[in-house]
Amino acid sequence: MVTDWKFFLVEHGVDPDYGFLLTPFPEVSLSSYFAPWDQAALHLPEWIENGSVAEEAGKLPFKDPGRISSKGEMERAMLVLSFLGSAIVHTSADASPLIPRNISVPWRYIATRLGRPPVLSHASAVLANWKRTGNMGVVSLGNIEPLVTFTRTDDEKWFYMVTVEIESQAAEAIAAVALALEYTTTRNSENILQQLKVVRNAVRMMTTTLKRMKEKCDPSVFYSSIRPFLSSFKDVRYDLGGRTVTESWHGGSAAQSAVLQFLDAGMGIEHTEPKSSAYMKEMLNYMPPQHATIVRKLKQGSPLKDYCRSESTLQFFYDKAVETIHDFRTEHFKIAHEYIIAQAKAEEGVIGTGGTELSSFLKSMRDDTKKKVTKLITLFTLKQHPNLFMANPYINVMKNSFLLQI
């Protein structure tokens, strides 16, 4: 078991201030050799609007991805090619869309180097898709904007940036869990208590930011104009020059963020529903490999829950911290319901962009979190939110582990 979690996190690419967000800050452009890719990203919204994505993308010159010189540039190239590839696939009328060789070959090369599938995932759409609009200041709404979009609308920009801010706010909770785990080895209960308070406050901030989604991202605009491009790949053909491979991949999903999987594992929250737990395990393959390594290592066992159970005061603050994670998932479900299920006229079997059946997954993830909260906390939650667990059959289901699994 890891004893120096702070060092382990830094060693695996987790920044103390920015969490799982890509740092140093994402590259905003590629070297001049790859300028056609940057130009394509700039014109992508126009190509989508006039229906010429496949035609224009097919005209791009072939570029040798082996000439990429840095990890930052590789992430930038992955971001641009993932948006281009997703736009080609989701504007095609073909049941088995074809991604041309000039996109497929470098995209798959870069995806392999980064240890992720050739599809638009959370790591590209969010973690590597932001820049600060000011030279100084925290990563927060009003001070950040996305690097690449499909529509150039404020709705799409806001959707990504709300997620980026949540990832940034999660850094405090991640660091606090890491410290709490270390303090269990020295049996420092007072310091553990303080870190549980930090987790609680950080997740509360994440929930507050999540509630801001509707300020500038309209549910109908998201559902009709943004969500389709984040959807899964099914029987997509990649032209590799001389041969074609056909593959299917899960679409971009907040379940591909390491944040709540890390908090779950660190806090001892277990998800036992077979389909949901299998899906969350599969989502590790869509994360940056270093992030997935952290989650897998932590899932081997965390002493924090059992340690907190040994002292009534710690148990109380542990429960309070877990309650905030439950509240985050509750708020997430309310948004997912409004942005997806309601837009689809609340039909059963609504599929998220990640490829899961939305309702059953959300239910299992929320309910597994709720099981870890004591009777006192559960009663408190029910008292504050009496309508969340009754009446509407579509609100009686919650699945995901972070922002919108859409």
UniProtKB/TrEMBL annotation:
InterPro entries listed in its UniProt record: Indolamine_dOase (IPR000898), Trp/Indoleamine_2_3_dOase-like (IPR037217)
Pfam families in alphabetical order: IDO
Keywords assigned by UniProt, alphabetized: Iron, Metal-binding
The name this protein goes by in its record: Indoleamine 2,3-dioxygenase
Species of the source: Imperialibacter roseus
Species lineage: Bacteria, Pseudomonadati, Bacteroidota, Cytophagia, Cytophagales
